[in-house]
Amino acid sequence: MAKKTDKLGVVGTRQPKLDAPLKATGRSQFTDDVVLPGMLYGKIVRSTIPYGKIVSIDVSKAEKLPGVKAVITHKDTGGMMVGPDQLLLCDKLVYYIGDEVAAVAAIDEDTAIEAAELIKIEYEPMPPLFTIEEAAAEGAPVMHEYFEDNFADEKDLNFGDADKTFAESDHVRSDEFISNPTHNCFAELHGVLADYSLPGKISMWTPSQSAILIQKGVAQSLGMSESDVRINNLNTGGAFSGRGAMRPHHLIAALLSRKASRPVKIIATSDEEFIVCRSGGRNRLTFKSGVMKDGTLKVIEVDHLYDCGAYVETQFIMPIILSVTTQMLYKIEAMRYKGKLVYTNNVPYFFHHGGGLVPSQFALGQHLNLVAQGLGMDPVDFQLKNGVVKGHTTLSGIHYASCGLKDCIKKTARKSGWKRKYGKLPPYKGIGIGCGVMSSGGKGLYQHDTSAAFLKLGEDGKMSLFTGLPDMGQGSHTTMAMIAAETLGIAADDITVISGDTDIAPFDIGAFSQRGTFTTGNAVKNASLDAKKQIAKTASEKLNVKPSALVFRDRKVYPKGAPDKAIPFEDVVFDTLHSQEGRFIMGRGFYNSPTTKPALAYSFGAQIAEVEVDPETGIVTLVKMTVAHDVGRAINPLAVEGQMDGQVFSGMGQTLFEECFMDNGQILNQNRIDYKIPRPFEIPEMANIIVESIDPYGPYGAKEVGEGPIATNPHAIANAVSNAIGYTIKELPITPERVLQALRQKEKEKGGKSS
Amino acid sequence: MAKKTDKLGVVGTRQPKLDAPLKATGRSQFTDDVVLPGMLYGKIVRSTIPYGKIVSIDVSKAEKLPGVKAVITHKDTGGMMVGPDQLLLCDKLVYYIGDEVAAVAAIDEDTAIEAAELIKIEYEPMPPLFTIEEAAAEGAPVMHEYFEDNFADEKDLNFGDADKTFAESDHVRSDEFISNPTHNCFAELHGVLADYSLPGKISMWTPSQSAILIQKGVAQSLGMSESDVRINNLNTGGAFSGRGAMRPHHLIAALLSRKASRPVKIIATSDEEFIVCRSGGRNRLTFKSGVMKDGTLKVIEVDHLYDCGAYVETQFIMPIILSVTTQMLYKIEAMRYKGKLVYTNNVPYFFHHGGGLVPSQFALGQHLNLVAQGLGMDPVDFQLKNGVVKGHTTLSGIHYASCGLKDCIKKTARKSGWKRKYGKLPPYKGIGIGCGVMSSGGKGLYQHDTSAAFLKLGEDGKMSLFTGLPDMGQGSHTTMAMIAAETLGIAADDITVISGDTDIAPFDIGAFSQRGTFTTGNAVKNASLDAKKQIAKTASEKLNVKPSALVFRDRKVYPKGAPDKAIPFEDVVFDTLHSQEGRFIMGRGFYNSPTTKPALAYSFGAQIAEVEVDPETGIVTLVKMTVAHDVGRAINPLAVEGQMDGQVFSGMGQTLFEECFMDNGQILNQNRIDYKIPRPFEIPEMANIIVESIDPYGPYGAKEVGEGPIATNPHAIANAVSNAIGYTIKELPITPERVLQALRQKEKEKGGKSS
Fold first, then answer.
1. Is the ipTM of this complex over 0.90?
2. Which of A127, A626, A723, B111 is least enclosed by beta carbons within 10 angstroms?
3. For chain B, what percent of residues have pLDDT higher than 70?
4. Quick check: B533 contacting A, CB < 8 Å?
């Protein structure tokens, strides 16, 4: 058991991840580790052109190759769709380089590769659309044959009267920003093992953020009932918003398995991963805002054009996230979002880590920095003046029952020495602040936001805790164990977390929208309270006190104020089972936020970045990050800091390094050598500050520490770069090339007003 | 959904086993199907002599063989024991041919075999003891060095005053019987896969009747807490009383895994199986009874000498089973059991299928048949006169709340045409009756007899049902699903049964003492009622009636008497989740018989066998079996009949065929060709009669149909043989050789009184 605080026994201690020994020794099982009797290996044959007609598909040679057990093309899919615009296997047209056309299953991987190469597909190329600007232009050729234009989605969302509020503002300013395509670079490649060799039930092993959503997708596509689709989500090597939905390879493995009457495994190759893993597409974002002379922010308007790639999947949700988030951080009077999601012949996109918020937070943060500069205001003061507070209700009706935003701003400013540094640093050194907000729940994205939990206690007082919440490496299972341990007064080490298999795990939408700690955590607490009541019955009889007068702590149970009368927790559980009654203790519980808003709780953060820019090379060195995050309560400070560190790492990657270089629909750097993510020596000095606002609805007061810190990060870094070079770069990532360009542009504009 | 009766929706329908498609297509996973990353293969080096000293063990060549990752001998075990008299690996002495001396783990099976052969063990043989008579004789050399004699156990159990009752009896008779060693012949060989490569937790895959008991054994041996030992009991290919306890191979695989830091799999070879699978040893049983002239049975005495083999394990329980069972079938005034369990240098024994009761039931049944003959009484009348009835309390205090014994006797007699046939058949044709009783619970064998169950309902109204009760092929999981389905008014097909993994399954002692249907069945019913209450809350609001006025039936819920107002069960469950509350339905329940006796319910049976004997060859043909069994309520008549068929098959095997031929401690027919079990064409015509006494405590009135029918079988067959040849064979099995011997003996005794 780790070190304890005085008030709580387990919550607040620095608990190493329960599965760390397994991970460190390679014993954790991932999808590719699973081997089934008679298992085959599958390969997908993908389009080699960005757009065009399929003239013919010849599978005859592949089918004849010894060891090949199944070959499928669109003829085998019955016109099966994956999402509203995508055929599982292309029929007449292909829409991007990588589009799925055929697939094979063979007795080993080599044979499968050979068979895939033997499938001959003849194409008739058509003129493709690669940029959102081309595709969105009036009169552009329409890419998807059954649609009227290239807009996968269009939204115009209004909160308050934006036009009126702009008219009332003293100053109005707008800035346009660009972000380029990115890739998630999961540690674990996409993959699936499907066994659909018997009618009535399909079993599938696959990494995911949400086994339930993949289950629903597969069930719907195959015309099955949800419970007849068993999804085994073992360990997941990274997800970062990108592993929520069913993808073509899931169904392709299923159909190959059905045809071959054998289980089929498909694991993406390292280059295929860049296609399968839907990551960030190009964004063009214009932020416009109105402020009063005193710095009061009154209104924000966003104009958004973003790249869908060939297929839309669930990119619809982006405008909602973006528009809601934009109004959640500041006390504004009106807000408007206008956005268009544009089809192109690029790979289909979704989110990079950060829920798609990195480009928009980068843009909004840089924009407001310019607004503050325009007013001659210190950016920290600007944030403090306009930032939301506890008790605030946003334009869309979100109410903050807890809010540590100003605490975060003040603490990062103090700890980083902001006042001493801002405006006083030597040339090419800079400091910048970013602020962020994040929901702790995903209500509204699905029909309900329930998490359920179940637990059973062994004779030795140790526990199995069942949750449908996956742990993608962030340590959420350890957090769940700590909440259960705190509630029952035992140690997190006493708990084995069971998860990942939809037949076994209780219902849980999954690890989305930073709902884990808050929502599943509340469910786990409820299940633990259910068990506690049963244990208290025995303990109350033994100790001759009311159940409500019992303390559960340090693996003991004792009457309040009388720890000398303590009996071991283990003995109470043992005696409950070994009694006349023979009662075995199990606890069940669930939680569903009683709100119609995205969440009942929201976390807040501030980050201050310090950079050095080399004017010769354009290289930005991120020297230090001071990170404060209001997590409500840090259940596991070690994991909270891990999240802060990890998200700064990922945020700096997206801000300074990561970019897919596109050439006529082909990703040029489609591998992990040429696609650059930060290296260990590029990680800055970290100063982490945990702010605890103790949320009234959170389990032990806890809120999220999921993607909150990353949504607070890119603008802090970008603002620091602006501060260092005296020029604002409006395109992500801020690569050395763009810095040098900016320095040249600044030189050119010398004497004029910047940007 | 299968055909329904009027009163119940699911219970009483003929439900095919839920896992039948998986079994039939080879998709069911057994231990040997599990492959782990880095897994090694283990082999055990066994003693080649029956008794002697180990002079030296040389493992140097084995250790040097490339691919060998671990070699262990007693030096690696720290003197670890398996049971009270057995070292995990032999140190100074070996006690039987097959005793574990060393073990190896290597990268593949061939290398492991080669390494095992490279281990050189030098022995100094000592004079062995092979028969119970030798070993039990006064002055016999003591086999186990720390013990004073060769008796592993001695019991003298008295109920009532046997001496007095014998004195009061009109007639006293005694007969001595022998049974020879047998082997269980499981479809699945013994095996284990152990992963003990990390400290703190061990995972083990192994087939078993009781994952919990193996867990306890391993935990105790390795000095771990129960919950730190994870037993994965996938499918089990037969168990028949023989797969309850931890065996040396479990710990050997664990120690090899620990030493090699890799998972290790050990699967017995087909000949090794005869050593690993502790089956039936030799029994010498003398039954003595006292009756009145009118046929009233007053007292039974048993004298019992039985072969322990080299080690005792849990053979202690045999006298309890035997003494309790003997007094459970007849209204007697007194009973005495005297037994000695004798160590020999044979393989360690335990039970063959039938809980060890086949030899004793054979003996008791033949003995009482002779008693009835002596009185000139029809055996059926004798059974009817003395058999227990509902409301009876046995000498040991067992009370019968339900009892269908006389129903069984009468129905088999009528259906078989007993009156028409008994005493009226041509020479070498015979008819015989056997009666039996069996507990539905194992209370007293362990500290408590709790079974727990848990369930969760998917959005589609389908269920996962969690139970620790293993299904060894008898269909118990299907029975559990039917009980849950009946309670909730859905179909058994809607249910996935989750079992086998101690981390996941709720507590359950296992499939012992025919406790499954009764005890786990009650737990499943309780868990289902818990869920039903939650569903009823929603349905009651929707239908505007009290929860108690709701009917759950045919996947629908409706107000009593108003099936036209029915709403689909699926919709009620879906709406409960998709409500404001977001409630996810889980049910938990447990059951522990409120009794201090072995069980709260007992089942009864009668069987009538018809045979033909070929006087030339001595071959007995079992022509027909009429089987009646009081199962309380047949949850699944298809499975009940399957149990009846299967147990007649197994019972006829033990009665007519099965015998291990021993030669100086060596099993001569140590393979499945020379060890004879019945072949399909030897299965008789079956006439099955299900008797339903509707037990007040059973789930829907159900009791066991586990090993009840086999305990009713051997004496029916043996009595029929006696009836056919006019001579009673008192040794099992009744092979053609013994029949011919009997016929010769009868010839010799011609004119004298039989037996």
1. yes
2. A127
3. 98
4. no
Q: Which helix (H) or strand (E) holds A537?
A: helix A521-543
Q: How far is CA B624 from CA A205, A708, B712, B714, in A?
A: 50, 76, 15, 14
- Cα–Cα distance list, A406 to A329, A365, A423, A488, B222 (Å): 11, 16, 22, 35, 55
Task: Give the Cα separation of B475 and B499 in Å (integer).
Answer: 13
Q: A653: closest CA among A580, A714, A742? A: A714
Whether the link from the prior residue into A733 is cis, omega within 30° of 0, is yes
Distance CA B438, CA B398 (A): 12
CA–CA separation, B391 vs B317, rounded Å? 27
Element spanning B525, H or E: helix B521-543
User: Which residue in A401, A368, A398 sits closest to A385, CA to CA?
Assistant: A368
List the single residue in A with minimal CA-CA distance to B450: A582
The dihedral sign for the CA sequence B12, B18, B21, B26: negative
Structure tokens at B179: 């049974």
Which of these is catalytic: B100, B114, B704, B707?
Answer: B707
Show Cβ contacts of residue A211 under 8 Å, excluding neighbours closer than 6 positions. Answer: A231, A232, A233, A468, A470, A500, A501, A502, A505, A510
Tell me if residue B98 falls in helix, strand or coil: coil
Residues present in chain A in total: 755
The Cα A290–Cα A288 span in angstroms is: 7
Q: Respond yes or no: is residue B707 known to be catalytic.
A: yes
Q: Which two tokens stand for residue B155?
A: 């019991």
| Residues recorded for chain B | 755
Residue A4 has pLDDT above 80, yes or no: no
From chain B, pick out residues whose CB is under 8 angstroms from the CB of A260.
none
A67 contacts A106 by C-beta, under 8 angstroms: yes
**Residue B363 neighbours by CB under 8 Å, 6+ apart:** B175, B177, B179, B283, B285, B287, B730
Whether residue A448 and residue B582 make contact (CB cut-off 8 A), yes or no, is yes
CB A320 within 8 A of CB A672: no
Q: Do B97 and B48 contact (CB within 8 A), yes or no? A: yes
pLDDT recorded at residue B752: 57
pLDDT digits (tens, 9 = 90+) for A713-748: 999 999 999 999 999 999 999 999 999 999 999 999
Residue B411's contacts (CB-CB under 8 Å, 6 or more residues apart) are B606, B628, B689, B691
**To which residue do tokens 């996956």 refer?**
A470
pLDDT for A320: 80
Q: Give the CA angle between residues A186, A189, A195 to the nearest 5°.
A: 135
A198 has a chain B CB within 8 A of its CB: yes
DSSP string for B198-246: STT-EEEE---S-HHHHHHHHHHHHT--GGGEEEE----S--TTSSSS-
Distance CA B703, CA A392 (A): 64
- Asked which of B18-22, B426-430, B501-505 is least confident by mean pLDDT, the reply is B18-22
The pTM (predicted TM-score) of the whole model is: 0.96
What number of CA atoms fall less than 13 Å from residue B128's CA on the CB side?
Answer: 24
Cα–Cα distance between A487 and A552 in angstroms, integer? 8
Q: Is B197 in the A-facing interface, judged by CB distances under 8 Å?
A: yes
Amino acid letter, residue B575: D
Cβ atoms of A681 and A599 closer than 8 Å: no
- Which of B230, B464, B507 lies nearest to residue A503, judging by beta carbons? B464
Question: In this structure, how many other beta carbons lie within 10 angstroms of the beta carbon of residue B56?
Answer: 8
DSSP helix/strand/coil, A608: strand
Which tokens belong to B138? Answer: 């006064």
Secondary structure (H, E, C), A446-501: ECCCCEEEEEEECCCCCEEEEECCCCCCCCHHHHHHHHHHHHHCCCHHHEEEECCE
Q: Which residues are CB-neighbours of A210 under 8 A, at least 6 positions away?
A: A244, A470, A509, A510, A511, A512
Whole-angstrom Cα distance, residue B696 to residue B734? Answer: 40
